[in-house]
Amino acid sequence: MNASVNQPAADxxxxxxxxxxxxxGHVEPAMAVADALVALDPQVRITALGTPRGLETQLVxxxxxxxxxxxxxxxxxxxxxxxxxxxLRVLRAxxxxxxxxxxxxxxxxxxxxx
Length: 114
Hints:
Elements: E1 15-19, H1 24-40, E2 45-50, H2 56-63, E3 66-69, H3 81-103, E4 108-111
């Protein structure tokens, strides 16, 4: 019997993307989930998804997890030119997110935050 038939391929490990950030109140729960998943399966591939201006830029690397960044899309509070540009900004962020999900071959995405 070929023993390799029962062995998973090196790239067949579960890929989990933990999306959210900004504050420690969003990042720390995501890191707790990451730690729990790694404790259950050391082969799981964890990727955090955030923005360059959140605390995730410090907290995620400190924990040793991969961090991918996308452009933040703040919602304008008043009807200004920013509101008119919102659809294009959202589209760009969606494309950036899709590119990350494809790059890491995501099996599961878990969101954190409000």
